[in-house]
Design a protein that fits this description.
By secondary structure, the chain is an all-alpha fold. 65% of the residues lie in helices and 0% in strands. The radius of gyration is 13 Å and the shape is elongated.
Length: 62
C-alpha cells in the first residue's frame, strides 16, 4: 500500500475531504506555502478525495 493511500474502510464523502483540503490551505503561511508536513497531508487528502469521487461515480453508475 502506498504511503499516500487512504486508510482501508469506508470512504469519506468528497465534500468532507474537500473541506479538510480548504482548511489546510487556509491555515498555511501565504509567504512560504505549505510545510513538508502540510504537503504530505495535502497529498494524502488528494488521494482520499480521488477515492471518494470514484466511489460516488460507481454509485451513480449503478
Amino acid at each position: 500500500m502506498s504511503p499516500n493511500s487512504p486508510p482501508p474502510g469506508p470512504v469519506r464523502p468528497a465534500a468532507a475531504v474537500n473541506e479538510d483540503i480548504r482548511a489546510l490551505w487556509h491555515t498555511r503561511d501565504p509567504r512560504i506555502g505549505l510545510t513538508h508536513e502540510q504537503r504530505a497531508r495535502y497529498e494524502h487528502l488528494l488521494v482520499e478525495w480521488i477515492a471518494a469521487t470514484r466511489a460516488a461515480q460507481i454509485v451513480i453508475a449503478a
